[in-house]
Specification:
By secondary structure, the chain is an alpha+beta fold. 33% of the residues lie in helices and 22% in strands. A hairpin with a 3-residue loop joins β16 (396-401) and β17. α12 (419-433) crosses α17 (537-549). Bound molecules: adenosine-5'-diphosphate and magnesium ion. Adenosine-5'-diphosphate (ADP) binds at residues 30, 34-35, 38, 59, 61-64, 72, 77-80, 95-101, 143.
Length: 577
């Protein structure tokens, strides 16, 4: 048998380094967190060549006393945890007293630090975790940590580093996340001598966002303000194709969590086309014992003790923000186009009020020979190309094409309406708007439907909500239900299939917050299918009218567009005119 021996500290540190230090960005994350913890108001991060050759983090925080400097680099050395009780609270902030030791184990470090008010500072050099030099020195108040030659003693890890630009991008993201987490701190990032980020540090999150992403981005944001969730979400039109612009911060620390992402995206469910995800910067303020950040030391992944409550909290906070968006209803028909069309009614003081339901994206004052009227707030300034006087813009139904598409000429564009999607969406909106349940229709003869035990249970468990929505049934034998009534928009053609689908919906683990809408979507979809096929000319005209005049008909419940448009400009361009 091999002898059991304790690992020398150097080896133990290398193992810890493997967990904590994956790439330059992970070093920056730890150093920046330390600077934040030290109470700094200015933090400057500098990297060269993606960070592998040099990283420097300078802060104006509390500093480290000369006799403590060496200790800070020992494993499990921390000033942040003293007792076992502390541990519980501190766990949620991710302190482990390991970062400096781990970073030092795989690099060459120089530290300069002076405590506030102290007459002299200290400088310390380390190589592979061992102190090579310590001297007194003059330096500004605060701390500078310089990390050179990351992974110089672990060539295998060095090989895993990506191109400098990739590593630099990760550093950029890390510093950005930290800046979002701390609008009260001014952050600066310098990459190869060029400044790439500078936040004001005035405590205003919007100013911080403005400085990082620019004015256009800042304008596309909606404030989120609830008891435990605050920050900003992007308007639907600011949606992206990746989640890189979703920032969640828990009690001031950047975190990731599937629950948070899911809640955010669920709130946008009917707002975005497939493949688009919302942007956000959301601060969560929760009791410290509601989360565990140490799922992985460096991965920021967080787990909540009550995931479902957290989901609902974020979902409703975001949903509220979206619904109180004063620039809504503003409808952009999907598909490539030159000028976005909006269904917004103009503000009353704009001089040319539109009648309800009339398109009024662009309004020109007839008295000033086509000079656009200046808009105050609410809607974006008019796009000159598509200008028209409200009230004069009319539309004409052309007919149905290709078995299911309605063509409308509105003078500026050819609008194509997906008959089924539009119908489904209209039904859904109507069902949703109905306060009570005027629509349960008793079946002439109740239908027995055989289901699995799980399906039965799921349906019975939600029978309260379902009966409100028009589905009335009761248990009938061990695993059958007797269906007594259906929403009146539906026909009892195949009640077994319908109940099975409902049960599947309930069993899919949907959130209570959206269950009602989910059921209504299913009903709308079925009802639209039921009416499917034909439709009289009058019906189709009525459908067009609703789409053309209803601001909120943006997408059908499944997020598909209801209508797309081909503008005259676009047609002209395509024909080379
Ligand atoms: P932890 O942050 O988990 O305590 P670290 O290894 O990151 O562990 O840091 C060890 C200790 O060094 C900290 O607890 C703190 O006392 C001190 N320290 C590290 N960086 C700074 C800094 N920038 N300013 C002041 N003190 C620091
Ligand atoms: Mg730390």
């Amino acid at each position: 048998m091999a002898r059991i021996e304790r690992l020398p500290p150097q080896v133990a540190n290398l193992i810890a380094a493997g967990e904590v230090v994956e790439r330059p960005a992970s070093v920056i994350k730890e150093l920046v967190e330390n600077a934040v913890d030290a109470g700094s108001t200015l933090i400057t991060v500098e990297i060269r060549r993606g960070g592998a050759s040099l990283m420097r983090v300078t802060d104006n925080g509390c500093g480290i006393a000369p006799d403590q400097a060496g200790t800070a680099f020992l494993r499990h050395a921390t000033s942040k945890i003293r007792t076992q009780e502390d541990l519980f609270e501190v766990k949620t902030l991710g302190f482990r007293g390991e970062a400096l030791a781990a970073i030092a184990a795989v690099s060459r470090i120089e530290l300069f630090s002076r405590e506030r008010g102290a007459s002299a500072g200290v400088s310390l050099s380390l190589e592979g975790g061992s102190v090579t030099e310590q001297t007194e020195c003059g330096c500004p108040e605060g701390t500078t940590v310089l990390v050179r030659e990351l992974f110089f003693n672990t060539p295998a890890r060095q090989k895993f580093l990506r191109r400098d630009a990739t590593e630099a991008a990760h550093v950029q993201e890390t510093v950005t996340r930290a800046a979002m987490a701390h609008p009260e701190i001014s952050f600066r990032l310098i990459k190869d001598g060029a400044q790439s980020l500078h936040t004001p540090g005035n405590g205003v999150l919007l100013d911080c966002l403005y400085s990082v992403y620019g004015s256009e981005f800042a304008r596309s944001l909606l404030a989120v303000e609830s008891q435990a969730v605050s920050g900003f979400v992007g308007k639907p039109e600011a949606a992206r194709q990746s989640r890189a612009m979703q920032f969640f911060l828990l009690n001031g620390r950047p975190v990731r969590s599937r629950t948070l992402t899911a809640a955010l995206e669920e709130a946008y469910k009917n707002e975005l086309p497939a493949g688009r995800v919302p942007v956000c910067v959301l601060h969560l303020h929760l009791p410290y014992d509601s989360a565990d950040v140490n799922v992985h030391p460096a991965k920021l992944e967080v787990r909540f003790t009550r995931e479902r409550d957290v989901f609902d909290m974020v979902y409703f906070a975001v949903k509220n923000a979206l619904e109180s968006d004063s620039s809504r209803p503003e409808l952009t028909l999907a598909a490539p186009k030159t000028a976005a069309l909006s269904f917004s009614a103009p503000p009353a003081d704009a001089g040319a009020p539109a009648l309800p339901g009339q398109r009024a994206m662009s309004v020109r004052d007839p008295w000033t020979a086509g000079e656009p009227i200046v808009w105050h707030g609410l809607v974006p300034p008019p796009a000159p190309q598509a200008s028209v006087l409200p009230g004069l813009r009319s539309w004409r139904y052309i007919g149905e094409a290709l078995g299911g598409f309605l063509l409308v000429d509105d003078g500026e564009a050819l609008v194509l309406i997906d008959k089924h999607a539009a119908h489904e969406r209209i039904l859904f909106e109507r069902l949703k708007a109905a306060q009570e349940s005027p629509m349960a229709q008793m079946l002439l003869s109740p239908e027995a439907v055989a289901l699995s035990a799980a399906e039965c249970d799921a349906l019975l468990e939600s029978s309260g909500l379902l009966s409100e929505l028009g589905f009335v049934f009761e248990l009938f034998g061990p695993s059958s239900l007797l269906l007594r009534a259906l929403p009146d928009v539906l026909e009892a053609e195949n009640p077994a299939a319908l109940l099975t689908e409902l049960a599947a919906l309930l069993l899919s683990g949907r959130r209570s917050a959206t269950l009602r809408d989910d059921v209504l979507e299913l009903v709308a979809c079925k009802a639209a299918v039921k009416l499917g096929g034909g439709g009289s000319d009058g019906d189709l005209r009525a459908l067009c009218q609703t789409v053309m005049e209803t601001p909120t008909l943006r997408h059908c419940p499944h997020g598909r567009p209801v209508a797309i448009e081909l503008t005259r400009d676009r047609l002209k361009r395509q024909f080379g005119r």
